[in-house]
Amino acid sequence: MCNVLVTKKLPGNWIDYLKRECNVTLWEDIYPPPKEWILNNIEDKDGILITLTEKIDKEIIDRAKNLKVISTYSVGYDHIDIKYAKSRGIIVTYTPEVLTDATADLVFGLILAVARRICEGDSLIRKGEWKTPWYPTFMLGTEVHGKTLGIIGMGRIGKALVKRAKGFDMRIIYNSRRKHEEVDAEYVDLDYLLENSDYVVITVDLNESTYHLINEDRLKKMKRSAFLINASRGQVVDEKALIKALQEGWIKGAGLDVFEIEPLPKDSPLLKLNNVVLTPHLGSATVETREKMAEIAVKNLLLVLKGEKPIYEVQ
C-alpha cells in the first residue's frame, strides 16, 4: 500500500475512503501542522494531501524522497513551490471549478452587505441602539441594482459573477490578461475599470505579477463612492494602503474575505472601521462545496498514485 500524509481532517468520509487504499498519517488538529511535523513525517510518503495553510517548499520536497504527488485542497496553489516540485517529477493537483459558485455567491453577499449596511444594522439592533422606529434618512446605503461592476480577472469565478450581475441589471466591465470573446461584458484597461466601477471585485490568482496589484496609486483612481471586494487572496491588496483609503474616504467601503495575514490580527485597524465587512475566508465554505473539494483532492491523489491522470493537475 502507498503511504500518504494528510495535513487536515476533511469533511465527509473521504479520509476513511483514502485509508482503504493507503496507509494514512493524519494531522488531527484544526490548526495547521508545524513545518517540523511535515518534515518528520514525509520522508517515506508517496503522496501528501494539504490545504492552503501549509507551505510546501524546497526543504520539504527534498526531504520527501518517494513523493509522487502533492494534492492541495484548494483552487489556489501559491503555497506550493510548483516549479521545484515539477523539476523533481512530482505532480501537483488542485480543486478548481467545484468552488466557483460558492465563492461567487459570497462575493455578491459581501457586495450587498457592505452596500446596504447589513452588518451595521444587525450590530445596531444587538447592541440595543435602535431607538427610532423608521425615518427617511436612517442608515442609508448604496444601490447595487443598475450600478457598474468591475471585475479584475476573468477566470471561472469572474464568469460566474457576470451571470449574477446580469440579475441585478448591472453594467459589467472587466480587465484580464486577454479579452474573453465568450463573456457578455466589456473588456477595458485596468485604469478605466478603477475609475468607472461602483464595485471593484478582485478574482485573480496570487503570483508575482498580482502581489499588491491594488496599491495606493490604484486605490486613488477609484471613485470616492466605490467599494472594493476581495475574496481571492489577501496579498493581492496592499492592506496598509486599503486601510488608509477607508479611513480617509478615498473609497466608500470594502468587503473582505481574505487578508494579508490570516487570521486577521486582533490589533488590525480594519476591526475599527464601520465601512468594511469582514468574513474569515469563507469563499468555499458550504457543506456541499467543501465535501466535493475533499472528494476531488482524495481522488486526485489516488489517481496519480495508481499511475493515472488526475482530475485536475496544475499545468
Automatic annotation (TrEMBL):
GO terms for cellular component: cytosol. InterPro entries: D-isomer_2-hydroxyacid_DH, D-isomer_2_OHA_DH_cat_dom, D-isomer_DH_CS, D-isomer_DH_NAD-bd, NAD(P)-bd_dom_sf. Residues 4-314 form the D-isomer specific 2-hydroxyacid dehydrogenase catalytic domain. It comes from the Archaea. Keywords: Oxidoreductase. It holds the Pfam family 2-Hacid_dh. Coiled coil: none annotated. GO terms for molecular function: glyoxylate reductase (NADPH) activity; hydroxypyruvate reductase [NAD(P)H] activity; NAD binding. Residues 108-283 form the D-isomer specific 2-hydroxyacid dehydrogenase NAD-binding domain. Belongs to the D-isomer specific 2-hydroxyacid dehydrogenase family. This is D-glycerate dehydrogenase.
